Fold this protein.
Amino acid sequence: MAVHHHGYVWVGSGSEYGNDSQRRPLGTGFGSTSVAPIEPANWLLKPRKMIKGTFKDTGPALEWYSATVRQHLDRFDEKHIKEPGVLDSRLAAAREALEMERDVVGGWWGNGGSTFYAIHLIACPNFWRPEHPCPEGLR
């Protein structure tokens, strides 16, 4: 199969996000927690049930990413992302990454810095980690 993308979302506390052990493949709880890994490609090593969507084409992948970001947008601390054209610019960069068969990695602090929002589309096979298996067995 050609490169496809798996969508992942993690929303959680800053303290959980700061726990490096559970964010590394050899760390305690890596496979059982949905916290975003330090290296985005390592999402592919997590259980399949953590995948929020699998996309073979750029259009549907970008639609999912855009809708997911917009779902949380009002809670992001980063105010300028809500200014005219800023989100559109980021979505254009996401489209370019998808077309290049690369990862799209979005992360925002929210709720006064107490919550982290990780919204990712991870290429599979992955450019940075081609040795990682597809969690859905699609290659």
Q: What stands out?
A: The first helix runs from residue 14 to 17. DSSP finds three helices and four strands in the chain. The mean pLDDT is 94. The two ends are 5 Å apart (CA to CA).
